[in-house]
């Protein structure tokens, strides 16, 4: 797409905020048992899934990049829900774990999302605003004066000005496109697909015809809608303006698409230049329409009337480093039981989850309570020893009482991090009189 901009541009008065990445990548989390498999969870917008369909890939730097098998998370797959997201769970067998092995995850898709523009700097100028405004009175008349902004000397005498003023309680009128025509028919250009437009017309006499006067009142508004384009997921309305310092480019992207992928602005200052990426990208969310406006400013160091930039907007690959040894989720203990000892104490035993490396220790948490009295008698124990047994002393239990309990595990080594495992199956025992 090549475009020469020779019209007044509409700028939206919303604050810019840094664009920090897609919802899908932000939601991605992965944990592993540090033995045989990796489990990842993430979410994808339902409408973006219908339009784009991204796929999760994993790369450990040892083998080639591999697609992770994913299914809808059965814990979040409710048949009737207003949640706009699909929740995915992905599981992959892993042969090697180690501190030096990094797993990098990325989302990919099979569509080419890109828009391009060749920009002639001197054909896309937006001067800096005038400064040093001053009002002077002379013989009852008032005059507004100003000077060109500092840094505009390169424009020479090429500047012209439009003056507008209002009473302080009036609002400013904003028009996206301004066209002059000497016939009763004109072409409405630069319309965006899938948009609603409104137009109005006013008239004045031409001084060249020997007349003078002012504009008429505006006609009654007429409105219409343009049809949706063939590729609604493509970036659109790419345009650039040069202010003597930066070439600022903006474009529009369908809002739901940015929940799955991110877009970058790439440029070449000359055909022979290496392609560079503009950063940072900012974003404005526009209310009531399904698009966002993104923008980036390219610094220009060498100004020439022959300068012609080639700019391109396309999707970028996001990556997230997830260190396996810092995202371990231990499997819960099994075969948990409590038995009486010869000393009339009670011995807790369990079978712990086995890692690839025996030097990784675990710690445990036990909750136990009297049968049918969970809320009133719940007790929590923290066990730091890696191996069983743990002894319940007589002071910890009541005689002739039925107890129930459950147990979970966590890594207890300085160089490794994990979350608590799920709770084990409940176990029970009864104390003697």
Automatic annotation (TrEMBL):
GO terms for molecular function: cytokine receptor activity. It is found in: Membrane. One of its GO terms (biological process) is immunoglobulin mediated immune response. Pfam families: fn3 (PF00041), IL3Rb_N (PF21460). It is a single-pass type I membrane protein. GO terms for cellular component: external side of plasma membrane. Residues 129-229, 332-433 form the Fibronectin type-III domain. It comes from the Eukaryota. InterPro entries: FN3_dom (IPR003961), FN3_sf (IPR036116), Ig-like_fold (IPR013783), IL3RB_N (IPR048668). PROSITE patterns: FN3. This is Cytokine receptor common subunit beta. It comes from Anas platyrhynchos (Mallard). The lineage of its organism: Eukaryota, Metazoa, Chordata, Craniata, Vertebrata.
